[in-house]
Specification:
The protein is an alpha+beta fold. The chain folds into 2 domains: about 220 residues, Pnp Oxidase, Chain A; about 140 residues, UbiD C-terminal domain-like (3-Layer(aba) Sandwich), CATH 3.40.1670. Helices cover about 25% and strands about 25% of the residues. The chain contains 12 helices and 24 strands. Strands 5, 6, 7, 8, 9, 10, 13 and 18 form an 8-stranded antiparallel beta sheet that branches. Strands 20-21-22-24-23 form a 5-stranded mixed beta sheet, with helices on both faces. The protein has a 4-stranded mixed beta sheet with strand order 1-2-3-19, covered by helices on one side. Strand 8 and strand 9 form a beta hairpin. The longest helix is centred in the middle third of the chain and has 20 residues. The chain is globular. The chain starts with 8 loop residues before the first helix and ends in a 13-residue tail after the last helix. The model has no long low-confidence stretch (mean pLDDT about 95). It binds flavin mononucleotide (FMN). The site of flavin mononucleotide (FMN) has 18 residues, from strand 7 and helix 5.
Length: about 500
């Protein structure tokens, strides 16, 4: 059972608090590196979501913005809660939920007024530095206000709104520079504005119901408006208000909206990057990139800026890695379903990989099944950042358990055979630092390129059957018979283990 509701950040925070999944950070924390380091160390310790209320330089009563919320989706339990469940749900339940909700479209409702317009700042009063945007990591190119910032744009022909997460940093009181990879939806909106010779109106949403971040960071087909998907997640139309200076619609209860225009004239570009990215690595070098020239800032009273420490590394998994794990697993599962491939038991993405590795557990029905799975995932438009490694395992291997996967790779894979299949130079994720620089040259290639690998870690069907192995092609595992284990269990206390006491 899920509860619906939310549609603003404050209710989401209150719900997490009621589940002991939120802590207020009341002591002073510096926006410059300290806030990022605290956030990452809390992630490392698998701590709760964080509401910073005492940020250096922003803790005077007259400060325009004094709070920042991080980590709302930083564990599978919190992700389950944000999705509307009352408790942690298993991978399969979350995936089924996402697949179903990703297909449920409810059109938004335009309302006259909303709390996001409690304060409207225009003209010389515009000042992005009035918000406690952190410098998250010491090598970041600046103050990244947009780590979970959602850019709302509109197709100038169809009027359809598009929402995507793109990182953004403050370059001046009224300027944000942005890194937008030429992913499909942005590309088509940009192309149409180029043809018109007009700048792109944009509204950045920095804090609202986390369902926006969950949906905006995931690839949906161009014809789908993300607001409709968000409505589906909450079983209600998203209440939207009209922006004050651009012809766009934004959530009525957003904490903070930055309205503006992106010029496509390279002469207007400003330096963006580098940034400590979700891969755990510093991404890129300082590069001139498109700028949002701010035309208005609107915000709630006592607004809460939303942000997060993006990067993931073993032991310190970033917040969005959990969302990426579930969303990318759901997308992969749906792709396999649409391709009509039978025998899929589970699809698991380990958060640290953000979907770069997809593990598919199958009931093997024919020898070519793992290759068919890889081909379907690699051939799907939604697979741009999904499945550099596709690992297929049998039913007895738990795909969420790296030890089990490792065992399967060790003894079910012959690297010299076609258990390993490499598909070179497919489209791919340009943020991957192991990809050769020339394969990350978006200007030349349009998309990044990935060499992709299938690891077929299922037991092969190419071997002959052996009568000594119960007429199977692979030797048996589980070398204690159940009856032997039962006998040992019955006599366990009689063995007299000295200095070691454990129940069977
Ligand atoms: C936390 C997070 C940060 C992201 N940062 C960027 C970014 O800086 N640039 C980018 O092009 N895509 C980024 N993405 C990926 C896009 O949000 C994603 O591809 C989305 O589907 C784009 O939407 P669109 O296809 O509607 O443009 C990010 C995603 C997440 C979840």
């Amino acid at each position: 059972m899920t509860r619906n509701g939310f549609f603003d950040l404050r209710t989401a925070l209150a719900f997490l608090d009621s589940k002991d999944e939120l802590t207020e950070v009341a002591g002073e924390v510096d926006w410059d590196l300290e806030l990022g380091a605290v956030t990452r160390e809390v992630f490392r310790r698998r701590g709760p979501a964080l509401l910073y209320t005492n940020i250096k330089d922003y803790n005077r009563p007259e400060a325009r913005c004094r709070k920042l919320a991080a980590g709302l989706m930083g564990s599978f339990r919190r992700l389950s809660l944000v999705l509307g469940f009352d408790e942690l749900q298993p991978n399969r339940t979350l995936i089924d939920h996402l697949i179903e909700r990703n297909r449920t479209l409810i059109a938004p409702a335009v309302v006259e007024n909303g709390p996001v317009h409690e304060n409207v700042v225009i003209g010389n009063d515009i000042d992005l530095y009035a918000f406690p945007a952190p410098r998250w990591h010491y090598l970041d190119g600046g103050r990244y206000i947009g780590t979970l910032g959602c850019a709302v744009m509109k197709d100038p022909e169809t009027g359809r709104h598009n929402v995507g997460i793109y990182r953004s940093r403050i370059v001046d009181r009224d300027k944000l520079s942005t890194y937008i990879i030429s992913s499909q939806n942005w590309r088509s909106i940009r192309g149409k504005h180029e043809a018109l010779g007009s700048p792109i109106p944009v509204a950045w949403v920095f804090g609202w119901d986390p369902v926006m971040e969950l949906v905006a960071g995931s690839p949906f087909p161009r014809e789908i408006c993300e607001y409709d998907v968000m409505g589906g997640y909450r079983s209600a139309p998203v209440p939207l208000v009209r922006c004050r200076t651009v012809d766009l619609l934004v959530p009525a209860a957003a904490e903070l909206v930055v309205e503006g225009e992106i010029s496509l004239d390279p002469a207007t570009y400003a330096i963006e990057g580098p940034f400590g990215e979700v891969t755990g690595y510093l991404s890129g070098v300082p590069t001139p990139r498109p700028v949002t020239r701010v035309t208005a800032i609107t915000h709630r009273n006592d607004p809460i800026l939303r942000g997060t420490a993006a990067s993931s590394e073993p032991g310190a998994i970033g917040e969005y890695a959990f969302v990426a794990a579930i969303q990318r697993a759901a997308i992969a599962w749906e792709t396999l379903r649409q391709a009509g491939i039978p025998g899929i038991v589970d699809v698991f993405v380990h958060p640290v990989s953000n979907g770069t590795t997809v593990v598919v557990q199958i009931k093997k029905l024919y020898e070519g099944q793992p290759k068919q799975i890889a081909a379907a995932l690699w051939g799907s438009a939604s697979g741009r950042t999904v499945g550099k490694f596709v690992i297929v395992v049998d039913e007895d291997i738990d795909p969420s358990n790296y030890e089990a996967i490792d065992w399967a790779i060790n003894y079910r894979v012959d690297p010299g055979s076609d258990d390993l299949v490499i598909f070179r130079s497919l489209f791919g994720w340009s943020l991957d630092p192991s990809t050769a620089p020339e394969h990350r040259n978006l200007a030349e290639l349009g998309e990044g390129l990935w060499n992709r690998v299938l690891i077929d870690a299922t037991r092969t069907w190419r071997f002959p059957r052996r009568p000594e192995w119960n007429n199977e092609k692979f030797p048996p595992v589980g070398l204690n018979r159940p009856e032997d284990v039962e006998r040992v269990k019955g006599r366990w206390s009689s063995y007299g283990f000295t200095g070691w006491k454990v129940d069977f």
